[in-house]
Amino acid sequence: MPFPLPPPMRLALDLAAACAAVGEVPVGAVMTRSGTTDVIATSANAMRTLHDPTAHAEILAIRAAATVLGTSRLDGCDLWVTLEPCAMCAGAIALSRIARLYFAAPDPKGGAVLSGPRLFGQPTCHHRPEIHDGIGEAEAAAQLRTFFAGRR
Questions:
Q1: Residues 24, 58, 84, 139: which is the catalytic one?
Q2: pTM above the 0.90 mark?
């Protein structure tokens, strides 16, 4: 029997699947209160839909959570995302002071957390969230493979 995913990652994967159905790269994000499954904000990639290169799932979730909570500091929040964040998103995670980052699939080409520049390990990075990777990795990777195979 497969291990059940934490509800926020299950929701993020469902959001990713929905955005793939409208032609967006399948990445979903969910912001919760730290240590709980209480959802504050959800989002999915919307770069094509919004005609905005910064409309990554993580950025949209951070913006929505900041609006809901009325603060730019999200130090009492955890972010669940289906793909390792890029440099832009990792920078936003650091600046917003998110407590924990959970992600599913690694991104060896574009990731900036455990791949590439490893932003949180840089001495100039003033905030480093706890990082938990590989949660739902197989499903997230399959979503991405299927999406890009259909594009080729």
A1: 58
A2: yes
